[in-house]
Design brief:
By secondary structure, the protein is of the alpha+beta class. 41% of the residues lie in helices and 18% in strands.
Length: 989
Amino acid sequence: MKHLKLVLAIAMITLVASCKKGNTASSVAKSETQKDANGFSYQTVANDPTGLRLYTLDNGLKVYLSKNTDEPKIQTYIAVRAGSNYDPKQSTGLAHYLEHMVFKGTDKIGTVNWETEKKYLDTISNLYEKHRAEKNPDNKLAIYKEIDRVSLAASNFSVANEYDKMSSSLGATGTNAYTWFEQTVYTNKIPANELDKFLKLESERFGQVVLRLFHTELEAVFEEFNRGQDSDGRKRYAAMLKGLFPNHPYGQQTTIGTAEHLKNPSMVDIHNYFDKYYVPNNMAVVLVGDLDFDATISKVNESFGKLEKKEVKHPELPKEEMITSVVENEVFGPTSESISIAYRTGGVKTEDEKLVTLADMILANGNAGLMDLNLNQKQLVQYAGSSPTFLNDYGYHVLSGAPKEGQSLDELKQLLLEQIEKLKKGEFEDWMIDAVINDLKKSQLKQYESSTAVADAYVNAFIHDENWEDKVKFLDDLKKITKQELVDFANSFYKDNYVVTYKRKGVDENIVKVQNPGITPVNLNRGSNSEFIEAFNNIESEALKPVYVDYASAIKETKTDSGIKVSYIENETNDLFDMNIIFDMGSDNDKKLDLAVGYLEYLGTEKYSNEQLKKEFYKLGVDYYVNTGNEKTYIGLSGLKENLPKGLELLEHLLDNAVADQEAYDKYVQSIAKGRQNTKTNKGSILRRGLLNYAKYGENSSFRNIISVSELNKINPEELVALAKDLKNYKQRMFYYGKDIDNAVSALNASHKVNAQLKDYPEAMTFEEKETGGNVYFVDFDMVQSEMMFLAKGEPFKAENMAASTLFNTYFGGGLSSIVFQEIRESKSLAYSAWSSYSTAREKDDANYVMAYIGTQANKMPEAVDAMMGLMNDMPESEAQFNAAKESTLKKIAAQRINKSSIFWNYERLKKLGISEDNREAMYNAIKDMTLKDLREFFNKNIKGEDYNVMVIGDKKDVDLKALNKLGKVQEMDIDHLFNYEKSEDVKM
């Protein structure tokens, strides 16, 4: 749902907007200062649904603690108030690059001889200063060659990925980091019993930074820069910011930095930045999960309390003048056209934040907003939406949209602005504000079940220096805003003071392409260890025992009066419910079914128009959906349990009484056709959907089993309505997650009326998995990088292989400490992203697959392919790395908890594989006894020597097709044929 963006931070695009600071005093949410048994002071807020304890250590470090016992894990964030806003003008991208380097270790982590290594690193630093100052290209290249030579020598004394090995050994997941304007945040989710070791590792890591393996990581960052150049959405976003902020770094310094600065870095600048901002009084440790408050804060103090406090002064950033006239920008690229209209707002802790948040939800809430009803439901556009973002100094409110076929971007712009005018005229019902607040509260209730969502909210409060009390009462503050106050604000705020950015199809003339620098692979020293990791590995943690699910007892059953089986699990957390009616048939049984249920979205009944239905559901605070996949169809309903009976009654009314609308159907077909055209401009869809399905199935697949647009135009919409209504006459089962199962069944008995005898499903089409090998499927696409996937059909699914494949994926192809990542990125710097996996079938009669992926500059592709194929045929072996992977895999299983509604959905997945019990127990016991020899045998039997179909997407002018010929017969694919679409010129809209 649209308002989910209002709670979670989305790095690089959107920050939290739902819990903002207000200035009105509240007797409900009030801060209190308390002391724990050890004498540590902390703040709490009355009626805080997250249960935060906020500590401040003597050195200024903020520590956010919250308890969640759903699983024996702790979501951890280490946040620094340092982002791209504070990059030196001559070193843009520095904060982000530093983020990468913080994973490289210290003078204790990642080195076998620091004194000797340091001499080489000092030499490299000096060479980079010379390299930056040098203007002559030939001299510059000579200096780089010397950097490459010295870097190779330095790598003799380093150990790659030691931090990643240690975090993996904890059983950590989500090990990563992100940088944005005002923050750099480091993430891990750890088993709760590994907290002591985690704090030891992290406090060492943040005590200093060592810039080892620098030039290889720099190439990885440049590949990340290339990925940005291939993202038209990012380009539109950057152009929008540039227009909104002609002076402020928000618009003048991208987080990734400029190509010129990335190619001319200063290690001196990076060290200075770290020393200035990575200090405890400018940082926060966030821990949310299964923890003991008093013991945890003592441990954090013992580790991070040793870091030295320093005075921190962030630079004074430029102020912006008012925007007094429309600013226009345009960007070009191969993807479908779109538009954004952005208004600059005040930042966090301003009244703008509250009023814009409310205005945004009136405009677009995914159900009954002005854009939802007037544009999306009436199918006047392909898509329209809005979202606000609030930062420290300013914010912005963005309206965005995609045009339907034949619609110009200016016509779309006018439609978007008309919704602003409706807001300014107060053309929305009086009940909408209350409904919006309830919607946000419901969303918050759901999201605060997640330790990650809570931790995200704490991070944003810290970065924006917000009082948690104000965050807790934010929604109550919104409720005090009257309709007239909102309308008055809209009239004073939304004027011709916006930035419009047109994303047009065409060639981007600003693309930067660089030569392959020819880096000499550095030494990984996989068999070596620092003294720190040796001591770290000897620290014993209390073992965490795995907990398995007895599905037979965890999933309870009852029946409706009609005899329909209802599986249910009680929601013990809150009063939300989620009900699903499940039909074990989908588009493989009837390919019109997906079309029919999608059409329902735009229909009304004789009693309610489509708009009235949307409003009625929104007033109830109930969401519904009808969705068809290849094999299953779901009718879903969710919301507050007290509104279940009315919500179900309304949904059943729609299902029983939907009225066909020819105009709505014609627009629906036009939307499908335009969506298909847009899909052909999306490289991700081409590679991961079109090419992958073709490599797996060839001509005959569920993916290509679609109805052509010309056929769609001939269908009578009455037939689709009849098909949707007939759905209830087929065999079905139900799953309910919530409280009061008796009330839920009573609601079903009252509203869900079905025939005594239900129909069997139509026979499903079957699609044969083809043998792989000898084929290279290539699509020519305008892009900087090239991306390729490898696919080899393996043996049929066997449950007994799941343990070995899981361990293999950890050791070989997945994660920062895997063999593939180390060799292709860390050592050779051939790609930003590279992975390999043994993929388990989804159904018991299907085959497993060997898969691999590389995304890199086209001029690096031949080397990258050779490197990947070398690994796939000759697995490097390291006893120490195998033991670490084994330990990590076992700890992840031990810490995993399948609970709440996940119990049912996980059981559904297992049943498709022919498994009726929790197979993790068998996997855990098998992995415990595995040796490197067992893994080698698995590799030799299932990976080595496999015959691959290769999928490649890239710019034909840059891709070395002769090199691809070595992998098999190169076939340049027509995109329409891949997707089984009609040629656009043959489609009448």
